[in-house]
Amino acid sequence: MPWLQDAAVIDTTETYGSDNLLHPEEAIRDSLDAIAAIFGAKRSLFSLNGSTGSIYMAQHMALQPGETLLVQRDSHKSVYNGAILNRIQLDYVYPAYDKTRHIVQDIQPEAIRDKLQANPSIKAVMVVYPNYFGITSDLARIAEVCHAHGALLIVDEAHGSHMHFSDRLPPSALSCGADIVVQSTHKTMPSLTQTSLLHIGERVDEAALSRAGALFQTTSPSYLFMTSIENAVLYMDSEKGRAQLDALLDQVQAFRRQVSALPDYEILCAEDMQNGLDLTRLLFRHKNCSGAKLKDILYYEHNIALEMADLYYALALGSVNNTQEDFSALVEALARVGEACRHCPAQIRTPADLIPATIDLPMYEAYYQEKETIPLATAAGRVAGQQLIPYPPGVPVVLPGERITEPLIQKLTDLQEQGIDIVGMIGPERACVEVLR
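-> structure tokens emitted (437 positions)
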């Protein structure tokens, strides 16, 4: 990023010629207009609190306090924090689960249709596209279903901002008819950490975007961040950027073939998916080694840092900055790890499916109620007062206002015993939870 050499000069504030993010009329407005034109948005907004902030603003635009949002249940915790801040009620739609591969898959349009028909009070639907593993749903059909029932479609495309720039990847959310789209430019494009974009389509009022930005954004926005986003988008849209992305896709396809040829490894391929896969996300597993252990071995013994891992899979994320040497080093390391693990006993693992939740009261009400701390083992039948989130990948298993059940207790206990950290577990040995009094 050559422009970072001028970081001290760029790190300015609202003054003559620098415009104002919360009321853009000059340079910032020109930049946002150019970005909106590239992505095909009605209007775009720099979001400088990451996609967490974008999600808060998206919900605020789409719903009034007390209204209902239909949420894909394997959404990031920021979706649920946004529901607390915006005081909205939630209903859930669950993705399909592949019991053979132990992976959460796509959202079926029919499942959303059934929810909208059963609950006419739902004003908006929020889905993840692609999900953390790179799996996509039939988003164009989901948009049709939402609009036929008068609901807005919000898409958490935090991990998919790059897909717009290649026909070899699934179509972008805006091109599929989404109304509000959240993108983490820092995740899959070359921009600084904490940078994000928020786009709206024709069904959303521009004034609503301005109001949300003024409410949730800082009055001292980082010009470094805004410059970083602009440069990343212009690079990806350039001939050089598109060629680099095309070269990356060639590299990851070769990587898939090489890993598939290694004994005892399995890697997720587009042919395994019904609706498509973000090929830049490399999801693989070894039959005798958990993903979490594989990630640790690669880091501590081979100096290779992966994006994430869970009980089954490890995830490497390819970017336009990766080289062929990077992929070769990973393949060689996986081969050595695989040879060492070949004669190890297979590990006992927990199903990665989502246990259906029972909502006793809205999350924003539960969040503010008085709580007490008790052992998880004795919490069956109690209403949760805090999110319980296995990390990775940051998808809550239990949310405030949901009833804790024996299957949920067993799942959380199994995850802890297999070395997965549960954010929200407290007390001695992280064995306690907060519940409502």
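DSSP finds 14 helices and 17 strands in the chain.
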